[in-house]
Specification:
Length: 145
């Protein structure tokens, strides 16, 4: 709790938003078809990418860190998909366009799925070099091009 109160007020607000959106996304994934969630994320994104590149990078890192904290303390399981959708929504509301990517990989004769977030074609959340997934479905404002 002490760490929470040490955060700047803007970060505390963003952390609270992250936590609430994680819960809403998790519930919504069980109730609505994925196409409806995809449309919602696309509409939430405001295309105002007029920030300086370093400013965008710093903001992405800040929001990502807070979403990770919210996911860690969420009362429901936070999956890669709920985290990626939450982060996409929060960044989109701040004018930073992203795409949620969903991919699959075969490991030990099992097929696994994973979701991650990209910006300008590069992974910004949820995908490291050792994760090799074949992308199936992009979700976001640039996905239908």
């Amino acid at each position: 709790m002490r760490k929470l109160f040490r955060l700047p007020p803007a970060d505390r607000l963003l952390l609270g938003q992250s936590w609430i959106i994680l819960l809403l996304v998790r519930i919504t994934l069980h109730v609505l078809p994925f196409k409806a969630i995809r449309t919602f994320c696309e509409r939430a994104s405001r295309r105002t990418d007029d920030w300086a590149r370093t400013e965008v990078r710093m903001h992405i890192l800040r929001v990502t860190r807070l979403v990770e904290i919210a996911a860690r303390y969420s009362p429901v399981e936070a999956t890669c998909l709920t985290e990626a959708l939450t982060l996409a929504w929060l960044l989109g509301r701040r004018g930073i366009a992203t795409n949620v990517r969903i991919g699959v990989a075969r490991r030990n004769s099992r097929v696994t799925a994973h979701a991650w977030l990209e910006r300008e074609g590069l992974p910004i959340y949820g995908l490291s070099d050792e994760n090799m997934y074949a992308p199936l479905l992009p979700v976001g404002p640039d996905a239908r091009r």
